[in-house]
C-alpha cells in the first residue's frame, strides 16, 4: 500500500497498482442477485459454453466497476484525510469482457487535484486489467473528494 501525501506532485503519474483480485462465479451470482440481472452470459455456464463467443460466463460490467473502491483501497492510502467521498464518474468503458475465475487489478493514475469548497477534488484514471488479457476490462475516470 502506498501512502499519498503530496498529491500535487503526482498529477499525471501512475500512483499505484492494486493486488490481484479473483472473480469467482459466486461473486458474479451474488451481484446478479443483488441487481436482479440474471442474464445468461453471467450465470449459465452450460449455455455460455454452447452459445457465447466468450465460452464461459463473464462478470457484469457494473460488477467490474463496483470493484474500484476495494482495488483503490488496496493500493492507496490518502494520508491525513478525515473523510474521502466518491463524487462520481466522468467516463466509464468496458473494452473487454471479464471471464469467470480470472484475476483483475487496478492501475491508478492521478489526473487532477483541484481545491473545491473546503476539500480537494481528485480526478483519477482507473484501468482495471485482467491477468493475461491485452485489453483492460474497465477504464473509468473517477472523481473523489478528500476532506
Question: Can you tell me about this structure?
Answer:
The protein is an alpha+beta fold and 147 residues long. The protein has one domain: Thiol Ester Dehydrase, Chain A, CATH 3.10.129. Helix content is 24%, strand content 39%. It has five helices and eight strands. It has helices spanning 25-35, 40-43, 45-51, 61-66, 68-75, and strands at residues 2-4, 14-17, 21-22, 76-78, 84-93, 103-116, 119-130, 138-146. Strands 2, 3, 5, 6, 7 and 8 form a six-stranded antiparallel sheet that branches. The chain starts with a strand and ends with a strand. 24% of the residues are buried. The model has no long low-confidence stretch (mean pLDDT 94).
Topology of this protein?
Blueprint: E1 2-4, E2 14-17, E3 21-22, H1 25-35, H2 40-43, H3 45-51, H4 61-66, H5 68-75, E4 76-78, E5 84-93, E6 103-116, E7 119-130, E8 138-146
Parallel strand pairs: 1-4
Antiparallel strand pairs: 2-6, 3-6, 5-8, 6-7, 7-8
Amino acid at each position: 500500500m502506498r501512502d499519498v501525501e503530496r498529491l500535487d506532485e503526482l498529477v499525471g503519474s501512475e500512483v499505484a497498482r492494486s493486488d490481484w483480485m479473483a472473480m469467482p462465479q459466486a461473486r458474479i451470482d451474488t451481484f446478479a442477485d443483488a441487481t436482479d440481472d440474471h442474464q445468461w452470459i453471467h450465470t449459465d455456464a452450460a449455455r455460455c459454453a454452447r452459445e457465447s463467443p466468450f465460452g464461459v460466463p463473464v462478470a457484469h460490467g457494473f460488477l467490474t466497476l463496483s470493484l474500484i473502491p476495494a482495488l483503490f483501497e488496496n493500493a492507496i492510502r490518502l494520508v491525513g484525510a478525515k473523510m474521502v467521498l466518491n463524487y462520481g464518474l466522468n467516463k466509464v468503458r468496458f473494452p473487454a469482457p471479464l471471464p469467470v475465475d480470472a484475476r483483475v487489478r487496478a492501475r491508478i493514475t492521478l489526473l487532477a487535484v483541484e481545491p473545491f469548497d473546503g476539500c480537494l477534488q481528485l480526478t483519477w484514471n482507473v484501468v482495471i486489467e485482467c491477468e493475461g488479457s491485452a485489453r483492460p476490462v474497465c477504464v473509468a475516470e473517477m472523481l473523489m473528494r478528500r476532506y
